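In response to reviewer comment 3 from the previous cycle, which asked for concrete evidence that the modeling workflow produces usable outputs, we include below a single protein chain processed end to end. The sequence was submitted unchanged, and the resulting structure tokens are shown without manual editing.
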Amino acid sequence: MKKLLVMVSALTAAVFSAAKADISTSGSYGFAAISGGDVAGGDTASTSGTLFMQGGAISFAMSTTTAGGMTVSTSAGASLDSNDSDSTKGVTGLANVTFAADGFSLQVGDVDQVGDGTGHVGNVASDMVDNGGYTVSGIATGTGDTEGYGFVASTSVGSASVSLSYLFDKNNSAVNNAETSSGDYASGLSVSMPMGDLTIGVGYASTTGGTSVNETTQGVSVAYALPAATMKVGYESSDLSTDASTMAVSFSGSLDADTTWAIGYTDGEQGTASSTRTEAKISRSLGGGVSVYGELQSLSGSSAGSGGTGAGTNMAVGTTVAF
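The workflow returned the following structure tokens.
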């Protein structure tokens, strides 16, 4: 009996020791109605009806801190994507872990490439409105692969925030492992620096091997705080099989404490092709984590709809809930 009590006491101590780690839970849900020119099933058939979509997610954020002050964190969850026609319920997270201490963090595992798309400031609407179908611009800037197995290191240098990424395998199918001799590598650098009322962003990314062989992209963005809004200007230039570039501008602000708005414009060129895209969004908080929004996306130009439905306008209205 004494041995049993000792075992129970040890197990209880182990359980309550593990419970010192911080585990938080959050949830979200979304519902929207989308119209455009190719809405059936979300970009899968030519029809001009109205598409209704919904979905949600539950997330678990887990972290602990060592005696030396280093924080170790990861996350997991389950979701049904609210802006994708695939109705498969999926398990998310646990594919990377982050170690942080003294202003430095290192994320290891399945990570996103940094430095790609720095100049894409005109994308102010959510992915939901893309399901209207008038989305294919025919212009592609940025590298073809933007995620894989590797690491992202982030820190501050003076007032600047600096992130560096390296992917051992940008085409890893296993998600939770990669070998250093995969031949499918990628690297990126992102720098953001405030300068008075301005914030300057610079990004660079490159890939080697796989489907995106020897691709590079570089971008710059400038954000300026106006009295009643924030203006952003961006430029992205990509060295691809056919070189491409985009110039973009956006304005965003608040109408009151609960209402925000944003307008974005992007002009792109790739070879002899060109297109323009205008986006607008307005969102209002109703309190309790509930918001309603409306979005518009208009596509035009000589290459608009290349491989898609052509030039036109998508619209979406919906609600989001944060639990």
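The helical segments are 2-18. We consider this sufficient to address the reviewer's concern, and the full set will be provided in the supplementary archive.
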